[in-house]
User: Fold this.
Amino acid sequence: KRPSDLKIEGDSYSTDNWTNTTDQILSHVGRRLYLDENHPLAITRKLIESQFPFPVFGNYSEKNPVVTTAQNFDVLGFPADHPGRSRTDTYYVNDKTVLRTHTSAHQQAYFQQINRNEQSRPEEVGYTVIADVYRRDAIDRSHYPVFHQMEGAMLWKRPVNDPLESSAETAANVKADLAKIPSHNVPVEDPNPTIHPQRNPLQAEHHSEEEVEAIAAHLKRSLERMVIKIFTEASKAAAASSGGDLEPEPLKVRWVEAYFPFTSPSWELEVFWQGDWLEILGCGVIKQDLLINSDVPHRIGWAFGLGIERIAMLLFNIPDIRLFWSRDERFLSQFRAGEITRFEPFSKHPACYKDVAFWLPPSAVTGGSSAAGGGVPFHENDVMEIVRGIGGDLVEDVSLIDEFTHPRTQRKSMCYRINYRSLERTLTNEEANYMHDKVRQQLVDDFGVELR
Ligand code: PHE
Assistant:
């Protein structure tokens, strides 16, 4: 059933029993929506890049999504049992090769590039990179198995051979750069100390508190300015389209402690937007071991990463993430390079929902990813993948609406509701039934479920 190899961006990869990348997923490779200058993803990219300008930052993109498990996980310090490595969460091309799950997979290569260009472009000590990333996940209006991330980093040279010895000098250099970034007057909540010994530790064998404080201050001001820029544009656009009813909302942001395997200390930046705190990005002080392994042992710095679709949905008022992939002129014609316009839905076609209920086979193991006790593993993301393979972009949402275990037989019953809806036309009931029958059959074929 599985092909002997997969062709991706002109290269051929042999498959094995790790392979779970489907043709449906591969059909998205190479669209490079972020380069279509009138596309909302490209407009959002430009807006962010404008905050990280030449010559300090090079602004890059990475077209080939195929990376090694080393690039995506090992080099970044992901432990062997990290859930992100699981076949239920990640698209494997084969045992050693995945579709990148985040742009951080390219960190090492960009750090190495900074080192290589040290003589020819000494001022370029930072970068941004945008790329398509791939994750097996739920199906709903804000999740799509392919989305875009943008990542950035900035490094400082540490003057002498013993970097800790020279940390006061490094801190002074970072502070001098901080002084060049204009401050802003948006309220910031930042209740935690920069360094917390348990929750957000200093890399004490490599860094002094003083330099990490300076880097954190530079990181925070840079990223605050970026999100303030984005959300000021968003609230102007929202206010303009409301015909003056809506005052541009006063912005506020807050810093939350976070954890990433490749930064410490780490944070998330949240923005208060239309009544909710939204998580916008993750960031932190880069793990020195990663820099040591990336040919830049005598540099220190920060990195951040964010999802582009979430931001673009807010900026342009785009209600469904599938729309970004639309080739419909009624969608595409609404956006113009450099402009934040509010999307006017061209129509909302009727939804057609259908339920599928089934008993799992007695041997099925739910929850975890690996089959403890020899049962057949059953993971919700595998249901999503079946639905995606059959319905593609005609499915808006899949949700578990009922689940119970029979008190006597201990067999588990599940019921999923699949919402079929095209963004572009009205689906007939026959079309929805046709897809739904195939989903039912494939659940039987792949998992041995008993339909109810
Ligand atoms: N790669 C992280 C993610 O996908 C985001 C991140 C990038 C965090 C860089 C810190 C530094 O969630």
The radius of gyration is 24 Å. The chain has two domains: 31-65+100-332, 352-451. Residues 102, 104, 151, 260, 263, 282-284, 303-305 surround phenylalanine (CB under 6 Å). The first strand starts at residue 5 and ends at 8.
